[in-house]
Specification:
- With about 625 residues, this protein is mainly beta.
- The protein contains 8 helices and 36 strands.
- The chain is elongated and about 150 Å long.
């Protein structure tokens, strides 16, 4: 019938699909559309990680000079595929298989080729795929590549359905938005505008990950030293449950960026191993208590420290001129600019990987890894007056080709956050994964990015878990999805040993230490000093945040009434309405306090006077 047309390539999940039409005697002009196609893909998920994938293809001949005689498709991961079947107009076909470069190519010859303009051929390809769904406890995650049509194909419609069991978690995130088309059925009605990109579905509105982080603190000097290390912090979309930190730190605190820091005193010539254990809960909706805390902490003046040009975020005048010519005005523009400008270089992922910074990234756009995507976003954002910072943490993915990871130590990942003044909150974005996975990581993230540290003022400090090593190539970061839903264990203790002896009619100070017994961060903790007899609140304070293992000193200034001599009573400390401790106080007139303070002097003077009188009388 004539020579073969060039191969048409279309990818579906793990295979590349090639359509091979046969030409008539006359040559076909370049760019001519040969067939009109409609794709309908169905992903049927089970309770585990496996799925059944079915593609229905409707082919309509657009010309009488050729017809479709065979199909060829290539699987990238044949070891994960099973139960392959191909149907022509409902009838199952036999096929030939060949292996080359770890790829399986399957060729199918049609029994009844569709000949003539307007003739229709319907093809169904069905197979099982192992490990398509990422399962993390109750959370399910699915990535679906969207195929590009070839230059000889006119794709008129492309629908993707995802079917799930009745007991599946609810839909949490969908990129782009999928509509519910029936019980257990989610549909992307036309995905042609997402060609070459990836669809993302997250089932469940939160995910839980059990964390074990190991730190080896080596003091190699002949005197004691203090080490400060970061544990897993809270965040707007991240809640941390601390099960144990062993050994217990000398003290903990939150730094200016919200990093959860622990301090250890290590003896001379000693290696101390520290183990953090807990659960990270990632959510699709922002946590209001953290947003309120961030809003209070980041006044317009405080936000200015996220606009400075620190190392790795500096841009030269020449680079700024390039950026200015792009007309970037907001964070969304910057996100898209970084994705369009940079290209991920897997060749740099090795033990000698070094961070190069925003300036280098602009001049070497084809050699970027996640650090350069992040640094360039931050550098441009700060130049545009948008507060931004770096997040370093752990990002889970099943397919490293879609979402490559890179960092030092254990395999960590970096992404930026910018301060959204409209929402008054930090908003994470990931231009690296937005580029490599072809997904929208601007409108919302996923439930797979766990923050370990925030870098705002200093782009390198604190160092995240995973780099505190004695030996290279050891694994110190362990992250595993869990179905365990942790419980809030709220509790505080109060410590006060000082006796309350107050001066009547004056302002007196009352202080104690609030000690956290909670496994979570407590926000806006209201502490009240109450007279239990009258239930009168004498004074109150709000502790903005109390971290696990944390201590906060609380002081009250109380105006006390005047009394003629002395009065005793009791006071209560209430935390969020619950009585924490009760303490007896003594209210005494000022002259009694003066007497107590100088009674030795008074006694001495009195004795002296008596002696003087005695001497006078004797004389």
């Amino acid at each position: 019938m004539g020579k073969l047309l060039q191969t048409m390539a279309v990818s579906l999940a793990v295979f590349l699909l090639s359509l091979t039409p046969v030409l008539g005697q006359e040559p076909v002009p370049e760019g001519e559309k040969i067939v009109q196609t409609v794709y309908h893909d169905t992903y049927t998920l089970g309770s585990g990680e496996d799925a059944v994938i079915e593609r229905q293809i409707t082919l309509t001949n657009l010309t009488a000079r050729l017809y479709v005689s065979e199909y060829a498709f290539t699987f990238r991961s044949p070891d994960r595929m099973n139960a392959l079947a191909v149907f022509e107009d409902g009838r199952e076909l036999t096929f030939q298989k060949t292996m080359e470069n770890d790829r399986l190519t399957v060729k199918v010859k049609f029994a009844n080729p569709a000949v003539g303009r307007g003739t229709v051929k319907r093809i169904t390809i069905r197979y099982g795929l192992d490990g398509l769904v990422t399962v993390s406890g109750a959370h399910r995650e699915l990535l679906i590549p969207v195929n590009r049509p070839s230059s000889t194909e006119e794709l008129t419609a492309y629908t993707i359905d995802v079917r799930v069991p009745a007991d599946f978690p609810e839909l949490g995130i969908s990129k782009p938005l999928a509509r519910e088309a029936g019980p257990g059925l989610y549909r992307f009605t036309d995905v042609r505008e997402h060609m070459g990109k990836t669809l993302y579905i997250s089932f469940a509105r939160m995910a839980h990950y059990r964390l074990t982080l190991n730190y080896s603190l080596a003091n190699n000097v002949p005197y004691p030293r203090r080490f400060t290390i970061p544990f897993v912090p809270d965040g707007v979309f991240q809640k941390v449950y601390v099960d144990d930190i062993s050994p217990k730190p000398e003290r903990v605190y939150l730094d200016e960026d919200g990093n959860y820091m622990g301090v250890y005193r290590i003896p001379a010539n000693t290696v101390q191993k520290v183990v953090f254990q807990g659960i990270a809960e990632l959510t699709t909706e922002p946590r209001e208590e953290v947003r309120s805390y961030v809003r209070e902490k980041l006044s317009s003046t405080e936000r200015n420290r996220y606009l400075t040009m620190e190392k790795y975020w500096q841009l030269s005048d020449a680079s700024l001129a390039k950026v200015e010519s792009a007309g970037l005005t907001n964070a969304f523009d910057i996100y898209n600019y970084v994705i369009a400008k940079l290209e991920y270089d897997t060749g740099r992922i090795n033990s000698g990987l070094k961070r190069m910074g925003a300036e280098w990234a602009l001049n070497n756009p084809g050699q970027a890894v996640c650090m350069e995507y992040t640094d360039l976003f931050i550098g441009i954002a700060r130049e545009k007056g948008i507060p931004a910072r770096e997040v370093v943490g752990y990002a889970l993915t099943r397919d490293p080709e879609l979402t490559p990871l890179s960092f030092l130590g254990d395999v960590l990942h970096a992404w930026p956050e910018y301060y959204d003044t409209a929402r008054e909150s930090w908003r994470p974005v990931d231009p690296t994964w937005g580029d490599t996975a072809g997904l929208d990581y601007y409108a919302n993230m996923d439930l797979s990015h766990i923050a370990f540290v925030y870098h705002g003022k200093d782009p390198t400090y604190p160092l995240p878990a995973g780099v505190y090593k004695i030996k290279e190539n050891t694994k110190d970061v362990f992250v595993e999805g869990t179905e365990e839903v942790p419980e809030d264990k709220r509790g505080v203790a109060g410590l006060m040993t000082k006796e309350l002896n107050w001066v009547a009619g004056r302002r007196n100070t009352f202080g104690f230490v609030l000690d956290s017994m909670s496994n979570i961060f407590l926000y806006n903790v209201r502490v009240e000093l109450v007279d239990p007899e009258s239930s009168t609140v004498l004074a109150s304070r709000t502790v903005d945040v109390l971290e696990p293992y944390g201590e906060k000193e609380v002081k009250f200034v109380v105006d006390s009434p005047k009394v003629a001599m002395q009065k005793k009573g009791r006071l209560q400390i209430r935390v969020d309405g619950n009585t924490l401790l009760e303490k007896e106080y003594t209210l005494r007139a000022a002259y009694l306090h003066i007497y107590d303070a100088y009674k030795g002097v008074f006694l001495g003077v009195a004795v002296g006077l008596l002696v003087l009188v005695y001497v006078k009388l004797r004389s």
